[in-house]
Structure formats: C-alpha cells, structure tokens
Amino acid sequence: xxxxxxxxxxxxxxxxxxxxxxxxxxxxxxxxxxxxxxxxxxxxxxxxxxxxxxxxxxxxxxxxxxxxxxxxxxxxxxxxxxxxxxxxxxxxxxxxxxxxxxxxxxxxxxxxxxxxxxxxxxxxxxxxxxxxxxxxxxxxxxxxxxxxxxxxxxxxxxxxxxxxxxxxxxxxxxxxxxxxxxxxxxxxxxxxxxxxxxxxxxxxxxxxxxxxxxxxxxxxxxxxxxxxxxxxxxxxxxxxxxxxxxxxxxxxxxxxxxxxxxxxxxxxxxxxxxxxxxxxxxxxxxxxxxxxxxxxxxxxxxxxxxxxxxxxxxxxxxxxxxxxxxxxxxxxxxxxxxxxxxxxxxxxxxxxxxxxxxxxxxxxxxxxxxxxxxxxxxxxxxxxxxxxxxxxxxxxxxxxxxxxxxxxxxxxxxxxxxxxxxxxxxxxxxxxxxxxxxxxxxxxxxxxxxxxxxxxxxxxxxxxxxxxxxxxxxxxxxxxxxxxxxxxxxxxxxxxxxxxxxxxxxxxxxxxxxxxxxxxxxxxxxxxxxxxxxxxxxxxxxxxxxxxxxxxxxxxxxxxxxxxxxxxxxxxxxxxxxxxxxxxxxxxxxxxxxxxxxxxxxxxxxxxxxxxxxxxxxxxxxxxxxxxxxxxxxxxxxxxxxxxxxxxxxxxxxxxxxxxxxxxxxxxxxxxxxxxxxxxxx
Length: 682
Prior knowledge:
Strand order of the largest sheet: 13-14-15-21-20-19-18-17-16
Largest sheet: 9 strands, antiparallel
C-alpha cells in the first residue's frame, strides 16, 4: 500500500503526499541488502570464532590421546615397579587408581569428540562441504608425537590449511607463474571468500541499478559510473597513490547465440576463456579452485585465476590481473559471474601490476530460444598512461579499449562464428566447389580461429627492438622481436616479428574494404610480387559480409605449392585481416575434415580501429587531418601492421635478417599509404 503523509492538528503539513510504491519497494530492497550484509558479517565472525575453537579442541584431543597411549604402554609393557604417575612423576599407583584414570581419559575424549562433531556439522553448513572425521588427525600407529603430530601443529601456527576443506581442489598442473606456488592458507582463503562475496553484492547493484549509479551519454548512449553516487554506496580507498591513476567504468548488454550453461562452462575454464576472447585475452590460468560449486549449475564456484590482456598494438600496454572469479545462480535461469582483484601473491619480488579490477563481470539471463542476454560491467583502476603510446592514449583512456562493449561484442561475434561452423548446410555458391563437406568447413574455420589467436598473441612483443626510422608524428616506428619458436602448430626455428602502428585520416570501413579486396592485394602483399591473387574458397562465418574465411591462390611462379589462408573479421569496434601461407597438402588435409591442429601456420596481418578522438565535421580531429576525405564524419583510424617471418630453422639469427624484416614492413607501410593517398602525413 502507499504511505500517506497528511495534514492534521499541528503537524505543519498543508497537503497530503503519497509515496509511490516504486520508492517504497526500493527502500525495502535497500534495507534487505543492508540487513543481508550485516547478517553475513556476523556469520563470518561467528564462523571464525568457532573455527579456532575447533582447532583448539583438536589439539586437546590429540594430547589426551597421546596421554592415553602412553599410559596403556606403561600398563602393558613395563614392570609395575617402574611405573610412575603420569601427572606428578611419583611412585606407582594401585590397579584401581589406574583403571579410574583410564576411565576419566575415555570420558574426556568422548566429550571432546562429541563437541568436535557438533562444531564440524555447523561449519559444514557454512562451507557447504563435510569436515574430515577427527580420526584423520590421530597419530599414525607406531609413530611418535614429534614425528606425526608436531608438523601439523606447526602448520596451524603458520596459518596453513590443516583441514582439507576442498579435497581435490589443489593447484592445477602446468601453470606458468612468475613465482613458486606454495598453496593458500586458511586465513587467505577466508579473506578471499569474503572478498568474492562482497564483490558479488556490489556487482549485482551495478548490474540492476542505472540512475543514480550510472550516467548515460547523450551522444553515444554509453554508461559511465557516477563517482559521487558510487562512493556513497561503496566506500573504498584508491588502490594506487599516483596522480596519474584513473578509473575506467562501462556497462553494455547484448543477445548472444549460446545458452547460459555453455557460457558458464566457457567462463570457468581458463583454456576456453582464452579461446572465447582471442582478441582480448592472451593468457589465462586457473591457479586454484577454492570451491567447485553446485553440480549442474556451478553456483557457488570460486577460483583464483591469473589473466593477461592485450589488444590492438604493441604500443598498448598489456594488463595483468590476479583475481577471484565467483559464480552464483541468483534466480531460475539467471547467473552472475564476478571478477575482483585480490592482494595475491604476497611475494615481494613480483613486480606490482599497474591495474586493479574492482567488482566487474556479467549477468547471464537464459532465454527460451536457446540464446542468452548478457549484461557486462567493467570497472577498473589503472595507472598505465605513461606506458601507453600517445597514438593510442585517447582510445585507451576513454574506457572503450578494454570496456564492457568490447567484451560483449567479442562474445557475440565468437558465438555467431561458432553457430555458423555448426551449420550442416553447405552454401555451395560461396565455397567455389573446393570444400564439399561440413567436416571440411569446420576444419578450415577451426584453423582460421587458431590463426587469429596466434596472431593476437604475438602483438605484446615485450622483448623488442625499436627501429624508429618512420616519422614519429603519425607513426610509431617499427618494433621487432626475435624468438625461438617451439610451440605446436607453428614452424620451429627462429622467428622475427615486426610491427608498426600509424594514424590514417580515413574511416575504419574504408581501410577494411581496401585490405579485403583481392584486387587490391598486389598493393600491400609483398609475397605476391605484384601478381594478382585469386580467391578459390570463401566460407561465411557471420551475418556481416565482411566476416569470412577464405583460401587464396597467389600467382607466384616460384611458389606453385603455396596458398594463403585468410580470416576477415569485423565488428562495431574495428576489424582485422589475418593471413598465413600454407602448403597445398596441408590445405587438402584440412578440407578433408581431418584434424588441423598440427598444421604449422605463421600468421601476419592488420588490425584497424577508431582513434578514440571525438568526431567533428572535418573528419579526423587532429592538426594533421588535412588529407581526410571530403565529407568524412567518422574520424581517423589507427592501423597496426604486423609481419612474421621464419628466418632460420636453427637457433641462430643475424642482424641482416632483422634488418631485412624491418625494411620489408617499412616498405609495406609506404605502399599502403601511397595507395590510400596518405603520403602527406609525414
């Protein structure tokens, strides 16, 4: 019902005021959340107190067991003349007194065991898993107190997990971490559980409340957190003390062509997580699963993870996080997945990351048609402005580079691609008659996906050489990296990678059309030697005509056995063209439907994105945009060119090889600029 504030007597009110039901419902919801958090806080405090009490009981019980064991040994194996009192060390006592002492010990042990079981059952309700039986802490027969029990108590004193609350949830194998993983203590786990729970509570608020927590842009409709409103609800100190640190926040929602449980499975598996976001996530590891979650829906799952993200160009600083990922099903058909950074690992020799993830993540709403409505929130604090080249500074600092829109758009695109790969119908008018089976189509698309993943993975180029021959006004210079390649699915030997990024006063769509046009390939593909190329197979992998996988035959007289596999990718945030030479026997293996994971590919390509600068009537908004097309209103674009060449099958590399690759990419950039009429940028 509505609450009424009316005049009467000396109340001082001159009219009746009705409070709408929406406001009262909001008040009730807020009160419920506050009470829920208070209740959880008391439960955590009580849980800690009872936990330490139970550990004390275990210590007492073990001590009593040892006393009983020693007394039995004395009664059975020693002469009555040598038996002494276990309490005072005095002369031996009589048989009746010995039996009474044993009886008292049995009674004490039974009482302690009963109290332990009560506390264990109570803790199991909070933790969700049974506590091991107390017999597990008994000394091994024939062992001494110092050899069997003392190490366990030392571990307890240091905070180590003496009670295995989650059997089988230890650290996963094959984890590449910059430190030696020594496990997670009880105290660390308690803090992690509380951090994840509080993060889930905060994320649900950010997902369900728009105003006043979010400000919506009147120009592009994007959402940014209102800092004043946020800080009134979520009181937290800045993680970085630097004046250059900043907050990035965004929220976006999309319909994706995948059911909710498939998405949950992909998000909780670190390998599938990388495969789902190959253009964003370059590396991910599950360090330890703290809670498995409920069978079937994974609700309650909690795991500690590591992630490295990198996008667009070597000029963009990668971001690394150690974070907790927590999944909860909050309603029927509705899941929330939260990521939140934690102060881990505690080692001092690990260089601190310059980014910190505040509660972020997504809400997945299951839909009747098998799709899912995914709402994404990204909220981070970063201090990487000095590490980001000025060409990409506007784009990165605008919260759009790693923002929520990029995550949901990428997810939507990868789910669409997967849906196309599962289509059993063969559109023969697209394929050119080369691929004649659904299995061959899937195999080629899988190979194209791996090619894109490998290409995005080499763009970090942390160990690099700089060749700043190009102009520093609108170009970055050339960055070269040399590596010994031993990865499966790539040619083994010494590989030289070279990349450069430049600004062009053209819309992103124009540049993408230029690169995907087979007739224009002679203007940028140095491997074609000026000869035209012919597309012999074309597989659509998305609704947009620019999303497809193709096989191209370059007319190179000296390379009759070589083809090109090419992946064209476009979404609302940008596009890319990735290609790799591949021999005819490998292509025949893939189109026959056989496993293509062993085919060696070494991709090169182009990444195109907006420059992040505000649009204006003159096109790109810089002082160098005099060459922008007439009537352009889409601003300028940022283009990254990256090439890879196998220079030696051994571990040896010479300076001439590196210089050759540098010259090759520099000439490629000059040819691109000449064809696009952008030579005057220098």
